[in-house]
Write a structure and sequence with these properties.
Largest sheet: 9 strands, mixed
Shape: elongated
Number of strands: 20
Distance between the termini: 85 Å
Order of helices and strands: HHEEEEEEEEEEHEEHEHHEEEEEEE
């Protein structure tokens, strides 16, 4: 009788399994190493694109310009500066060198539609009040024609993949002035008519009366969600407690009648320590207060009428408060311009276009 056995010779199976597992391990290792490298290069190119786009957007307005109401954006300079910025960025620890001007697009960025329109400046009057501004879009890439060629693979060569092209794209833009940075010069909720600044400059004294046609008015300094309920009590709360937020929304100017303005002006005097007011020593004046020496600087918003006959804040000037009077028959506030016909230092983006560009670029895509 034959002996039956279910055991067979398995010699060599372990070696075969080892070969299969090693192949799988090398494949996974190749994937991890090369994908990690590609991810690093992608981030480097993305950072470079962001830097070039931001520099290009800032270069729409020359660096030496401080009065941004008096200059049109320069798309050629924006392209040039964006192209030069590539040289200070690196990939694989090597300086990038290729950002051809022909690859750079300039146009008008519409923040609402998130779209770059063809270049046309100044904007059409129908675009006033829209959230738009000069925009620049550009690519950074490593391909056969750019920046030392595509990214070389290491272990992926086992699978016949020797190089992979990589690229990134960024868009940056300017916008209208949305407010003023509060540094050493806090703002006051009184708005000056821009047309006055076109006629007069430094040293001009302006006296605020209830009629804003000649001077200006009280401004809406509340956050946007509260703008519809601003009234005299809000203005007085501002004078007592300071601004509700750290910047000036680009909102309408409030025209107050004589009684309301005198009510707010009285609050101004009640908070005299905050504003540096002391009672006028002249015995012939009543209910009149002047600022103590040395007088402090404040930012006063500058307003203008748009084509819809609505008031809007478009810039700001630095001024000193000279005198405040709450006399019932002559309620007024007198100020003296320190910097005439100029945008206050530190203007930044965030507002619709009303004739004044911010110089702070923003990445938008």
């Amino acid at each position: 009788m034959k002996k039956i056995t279910f055991l067979r010779d398995c010699s060599g199976a372990t070696s075969m399994m080892t070969v299969i597992l090693m192949g799988a391990f090398i494949g996974v290792l190749a994937l991890v190493i090369d994908l990690g490298h590609l991810h690093t290069v992608q981030n480097e190119l993305s950072n470079a694109a962001d830097a070039c786009a931001c520099r290009g957007a800032r270069a729409f307005v020359p660096d030496y310009i401080t009065d941004i109401t008096e200059v049109d954006p320069d798309p050629a300079n924006a392209k040039t500066q964006a192209s030069l910025t590539i040289l200070v960025n690196k990939s694989d620890n090597t300086s990038l060198q290729d950002l051809p001007i022909g690859d750079i697009e300039v146009g008008i960025w519409n923040y609402t539609e998130r779209k770059l329109y063809s270049w046309a400046w100044p904007p059409d009057p129908s675009d006033w009040g829209k959230y738009i501004g000069p925009g620049i879009r550009l690519p950074t890439k490593r391909t056969a024609a750019y920046n030392y060629g595509p990214v070389s693979m290491t272990l992926a060569n086992i699978f016949g993949i020797s190089t992979v092209p990589v690229g990134a794209r960024a868009t940056a833009a300017l916008s209208g002035v949305g407010g003023f940075r509060q540094e050493s010069c806090p703002e006051v909720p009184l708005c000056i008519n821009r047309e006055l600044l076109d006629l007069y400059g430094k040293g001009t004294q302006i006296q605020f009366h209830p009629d804003h046609e000649d001077t200006g008015g009280w401004t809406n300094l509340l956050p946007l969600e509260q703008k519809d309920r601003t009234d005299a009590s809000d203005i007085k709360s501002y004078l007592r407690d300071g601004p509700y937020c750290g910047n000036l929304p680009n909102e309408t100017v409030i025209s107050m009648n004589n009684g309301v303005m005198c009510s707010a002006t009285k609050t101004f005097i009640e908070e005299r320590d905050k504003w540096g007011l002391v009672e006028d020593a002249d015995p012939n004046t009543k209910n009149t207060w002047v600022t103590s020496e040395p007088r402090k600087d404040y930012v006063f918003p500058v307003c203008t009428l748009d084509k819809f006959n609505q008031w809007h804040i478009v810039s700001g000037v630095t001024a000193k408060i000279i005198q405040v009077s709450s006399a019932p028959d002559d309620c007024n506030i007198k100020i003296e311009i320190v910097q005439g016909n100029t945008v206050a230092p530190g203007t930044y983006g965030g507002g619709p276009w009303y004739g004044v560009l911010s110089t702070e670029p923003k990445l938008v895509q």
